[in-house]
Amino acid sequence: MQPSLHFFTPKHQSLLQTQSPLFTCKFIVNPAKKTVPRNPLPLLSPPAPSRSPPHPEVVEPMVQRERSNVLVPQHPNYPVHLNRFQKLAAVALDKIETSVIMRLEKDYVLPKMVDPEVQISGNFAPVEECPVHHGLEVVGRIPACLRGVYVRNGANPMFAPSGGHHLFDGDGMIHAVSLGLGNKASYSCRYTRTSRLVQEARFGRCMFPKPIGELHGHLGLARLGLYMARAGLGLVDGSHGTGVANAGLVYFNGRLLAMSEDDLPYHVKITGEGDLETIGRFNFSDQIDCPLIAHPKLDPVTGDLHTLNYNVLKKPYLKYFRFDKFGRKSGDLHVDIDQATMIHDFAITENFVVIPDHQMVFKLSEMIRGGSPVVYNKNKTSRFGVLQQNDVVGSGIQWINVPNCFCFHLWNAWEEISDTGDKIIVVIGSCMNPPDSIFNESKDTFRSELSEIRMNLRTRQSTQRVIVSGMNLEAGQVNGQYLGQKTRFVYLAIADPWPKCSGMAKVDLQTGKVTKFMYGTWRYGGEPFFVPDKKQTCNRNGNEDEGYIMGLVRDEKKEMSEMVIVKGSNMEQVAAIRLPSRVPYGFHGTFISQEELRRQVI
């Protein structure tokens, strides 16, 4: 089975620089009718025809391949640059994988959270790359302020997993909807060409372990040992990162950056035609050599980009730093925490950084005992660290306990003064219960409740209240022009039936009022993204909800995908853009205006 990678360059660095060859995913299914079997072999289908002139590309014909119990091809596709010894070693390691590891894995019943038949089924199944399609059908009118490109990231595994697979394990794919003058729209989607993906494409199959789906127990250790052997023999190279760049997106200092917290970000260029090209792994001009979390925070007032790095192997387990609006990095500030902790998100205020230290921790020793290295530590008390942004050593950080709190995402934070003159830090986030719902099965009903947490910096006491009960609200944001300042509204996905999203909600944080926009029967979406109608200022001269919310929606019955645009003030739809191919459910997105694109670093 040859990789559907329509270019070949023997040198790894040259591969990373190659611009927009066509990748095709190795398994495509009809999402409304099928799920992906444990060891599938694919149907390869060409993209839907474009309304625009043909795009120069090579597309494989639709071919039904015979079913096989083994993912590894009978005639492995070894890159030509391997020497004779490396090829012999590769054959030997492949034999160990197929005859020992995969045979043992077949006897293991996978939990639903890492079972490919669950995790990559329906509209969570991957799709092929799609070159730019112009002249899309638009229902309604695209608001004049929305001139630019909406991009959304997600997991889209290129190769069928041979063992466990978690939704977060898939290769990063960005979907782009370009909005132009004259009510015109176009669409494209491309893999982010990570070092990992490029190397696996050369072999035609998975070569790197899946950090969540496969690294469990003794078989996880075997998978890890197999990878280390391949790396030691020069078959794969992990020195350029092993991340998948599938989670967050941020546009900063003229660059679109694709983020996942297991690697440096990847710089992705948006072309004038609305296509996507991976420029490469981005180290901020040699200023960083460590992964960044998936949710950096862009201060709308200063233009600074704040971020964190966590280390699961050694101290310091956590570092904070930021980049000014010109991209110049501050010094590293080591945040003192007792154990390696999963910190997916954090918050900023005008003067502070607010860092969660919750109950999901990393214990690699659990693999030796047969368990997962991602552990829900019930004996740990959740807390938040409040750090002055101008603190250069971290000695002034204040830790405040907030029991029974796990916020996978934080939507905003700001500073207030109490009646007694105490400074209060207010945090708005979705509190998830059970805390390990994303990683482990539970008999308890999943809840993700929009909550307000108030922390007194003098007394170091906290309070917590649920703003909206009885409704799962996840994935969203506030008006980005008010980030770090007091906001009235937050826009979130209605995560029901979990993990699908049946609509979007506008929540008034003052009154608790919820205004819904429901997608309709058999229609589901993901994260809603708010775009201001005009540049808002933090002195309240404008209405905070003047703007539009956009999101991608899939009609599972009609098998149609579209982008909907909803007016923020009344939560009514103003436009829908019919997309030419299926768009799987994904993660996070952003909007880049025409003005910002003109300043794009190429």
> What is the fourth-level CATH superfamily of the domain at 249-585?
TolB, C-terminal domain
Task: Give the total of beta strands.
Answer: 33
Overall structural class, as computed from helix and strand content, comes to mainly beta
> What composes the largest sheet?
6 strands, antiparallel
Provide the residue-averaged pLDDT: 82
Helix percent reads: 10-25%
| β-strand amount | 25-35%
Outline: globular
Rg: 23 Å
Distance between the termini: 36 Å
User: What is the CATH-assigned architecture of the domain at 249-585?
Assistant: 6 Propeller
How many separate helices? 7
| The CATH topology of the domain at 249-585 | Neuraminidase
- Contiguous low-pLDDT stretches (5 residues minimum) are 1-21, 26-75
- Using the coordinates above, name the CATH class of the domain at 249-585: Mainly Beta
Question: Tags for this entry?
Answer:
disordered N terminus, 602 residues, Neuraminidase, six-stranded antiparallel sheet, mainly beta
Summary of the model, kept short:
With 602 residues, the protein is mostly beta strands. The chain is built from 7 helices and 33 strands. It has a domain at 249-585: TolB, C-terminal domain (Neuraminidase, 6 Propeller).
Would you mind describing this structure in some detail?
The chain has a domain at 249-585: Neuraminidase (6 Propeller). 11% of the residues lie in helices and 31% in strands. It has helices at 12-17, 84-106, 116-119, 195-203, 217-232, 365-368, 594-598, and strands spanning 130-133, 138-140, 148-155, 172-180, 184-191, 248-252, 255-259, 266-270, 276-281, 297-298, 305-310, 318-323, 333-334, 347-348, 352-357, 360-362, 374-376, 383-388, 398-401, 407-417, 423-433, 447-456, 462-466, 473-477, 489-494, 503-508, 514-518, 523-525, 529-532, 547-555, 560-567, 573-578, 589-593. The strands form eight sheets. Strands 2, 28, 29, 30, 31 and 32 form a six-stranded antiparallel β-sheet that branches. It has a five-stranded antiparallel β-sheet with strand order 1-5-4-3-33. Strands 6-7-8-9 form a four-stranded antiparallel β-sheet, with no helix packed on it. A hairpin with a 5-residue loop joins strand 8 and strand 9 (276-281). The model is unreliable at 1-21 and 26-75 (pLDDT under 50). Residues 39-56 have a biased composition (Pro residues).
